[in-house]
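Worked Example 4.2. Read the sequence first, then its C-alpha cells.
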Amino acid sequence: MKKIRVLVADDSALMRQTLKRIIAESEDFELIGTARDGEDAVAKARELRPDVISMDINMPKLDGISALQIVLQEKICPVVMVSSLTQKGATTTFECLELGAFDFVGKPDGTVSSNMGTVAEELLTKLRAAASRGSPARRRESPKGKYGRIQTPVREKAVTRPALAQEGPARPRAVVIGISTGGPATLQEVLPLIPADLPASLFLVQHMPPSFVSSFAKRLDDHCSLKVVEGRSGMPIEPSVCYVAPGGMHLCLHRKMTGEVVIRTPTTPTTLFMPSVSVMMDSVLKIYGSDTIGVLMTGIGDDGANEMVAIKQAGGFTIAESQETAVVYGMPREAVERGGASVQLPSYEVAGEITRAVRRRWHEQS
C-alpha cells in the first residue's frame, strides 16, 4: 500500500516531535520532512512534493497563511492548518479556509500543546481526506465553478420579514443541517446560495472546537444574505434565520405554553460529539414534524443518520451529500444506506434543493 507522504510545519520543536510521533504510529503515513518556519515549509514542499502538509499558523519569517498561499498557488498539495484555540486563532483559521486550506485541527492547549494526543485521530483523518483529494490542480470542475471554491456575491440582508413568511396559512418549516469534517469550507459554499427570504428556520450543527463557533457564525453571517446567529438559550425562533449550535452544548427546541418556540442548550445527553446532529434533528422533528427538511453532509461516523430516517418516515424531506463532493463520505453514506435520504446531491446543488423543497412545501400547504 502506498503511504501518504506528510510534511509537518511548526516552529515548536516539541510540536514537531509530537506530530512526528502521531504520524509514525499510523501505518498508512510516512513523515518525509519537518519545517521550523514558513520559509522552510515552502522550500521543503517544493523539494519533497508531499501528498499533504500539516501547517501551523503562527510561525516566524513567513507565517502559515503566507506559506499556505504559496503552496496552493503553486498547486503543490492540500494543506491542513493546525491552530490555537483562541479568538484570534479562530479568525485566522477561517481566513485560511477561505484561501483554500482543506480543513483545520485545533491545538488543545494553545500554540504549543503537549496534549495533541486527544486530537490525533482527528488530525490523521483530515490528513487522509486531504491527501485523497489530491493537489488543487487535480480537483474536478463543477457546473457552478471550480470544485471546492464556489464564488458567490455577498448580498444585502433582508431588512424586513420575507413576504412568503407572512402570507397564507402555511405552517412554519425547519431545515436541519448536520456536518463535520470538511464542513467549514463546504458551508461557506452552500449557505451563501440560500436566499434571504427563505420561508423557513434553519438549524445547523457543525462539529468544531467550542471556542471557534462564535467566530464561525459571524463569518457565515458576513458571507450570507440569510441571517446567521449562534443559538442561545431562550432565543425565539424566526423564519429566514440560521441558528448555529453553540460549542459544547446541544441545540434543542422548546415550545412554550404560548406556542412560541425557543432555543434550549442542554449539556445532556452525553454524546460523542457535543453538539450532536442526532440530538438537534430529533428535537426539531418533534416540533416541526413533516415540515422538517433534513440535510446531512460531509463528516466522519453516523451522527444524524438515524434521525434522517425518522424525518423521512415522518413525511419530511431529506438530502444527503453525494460521494462526488463529500470530503469524508461517512455521515451522508450512513443516512443513504439506512434509507434516510430522499435525494443524494453534490454540495453545489444542496442550496438549490433546500430552497425548492421549502417553497414546494409552502405552496402545498397554502
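Now turn to a second chain, presented in exactly the same format:
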Amino acid sequence: MAFLNLVRWKNLAILVFMAIMIRFALLPGFGQNPSIGLSYYLLLILSIVCIAAAGNVINAIFNVTTDSINRPNKLIIDQVIKRRIAFKLYFGLNVLGLFTILFILLSNPSESLWIVFSICVLSPIALAIYSIWLKKVALLGNILISILVGASFLCFGIALVDSGQNPVVYFTILAYALSAFSLNLSRELIKDVEDLRGDYYCKMKTLPILIGKKRSNHMIFGLLTFTILTLLTILLNYFLSLNIFIFYVFAFVLIPLILISKQILKAKNQKDYTSISFHLKLVFLIGISSMFTFLNL
C-alpha cells in the first residue's frame, strides 16, 4: 500500500480512466476508428502511467521536508520506503516507460507517434526539473505540471486520431486538453495555499508566500472564471447541437465550478482548501466522464 500511495495511484487511475474514455467513448461516438491497435494503445497507457508514477516518486523524494510539516501522517520516504529504494524505483519506472513508447514507435512509425514519443522523453526531464527547482518558483512549476496534464490528453488523442482526417475529433481532444490544463492549474495553486506552512519553512517562493492568501484566492477565482467562460464559449460555438453533452457539462461541470469559485473567495483555513481541492478533482473526473454522452450521437 505504501508503494501505491507513493506513486499516487488515485491520480494514475484517473489517467487510465481518461485514456479509456478517449478510446472507447469519444472515438466511437464520432464514428472514428483508432489509428493504432488496442494492444499498442494499452502499451501506450502503461508507458505514460509509468512516467507519471516516476514523476510522483521523484517529487516525493525532494518533498520530504515540506511533507513532514504539511502531511506528517502521510510521509512515506525515509519512514516506510528508503530513499535509495525510491530512487531505484524512479529510474526503473522511467526506463520501463521510455522503452515501451520506443517499442510502440518502432512498431508503428508515424508522425503522430513521433510527437507522443518526444513528449514522453521530455516529460521525465521536466518532472525532475519541477521537483528539484521549479516547485519552489511561483507559477512556473504550477504551469509546467498543468502543461504535462494537458499533454497527457494530447498523447492519448493524437496516438489514436489523425488531425488531417478527423479535425472535429482532434479539436474536441484539444478542448479537453485545454480544460485539463486550466483546471489542474487552479488546483495546483490551491494546493500551494494549502501547503503554505511547510513551503514557507523551506523558503519556497510560491504564489501565496509572495502575495498572501487573500490575493491568491482572487487570482484562483479569476482563473476559474476564465475557465468557465472559455468552456462556455467552446460549448456555444462548437457543440450547441449536442443536447445531452451541453446539458451534462452545464449541470455537472459549469455549475459546480461556479459554486467552487465562490467557495474560494471565502476560504481561510487548510480544511477549506483541502475541500476545494477535492471538489476540483471530482469536477475534473466528472468532466472526463462527459465523453460518455458522445455515444448517443
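Notes for the reader: The mean pLDDT is 92. The radius of gyration is 19 Å.
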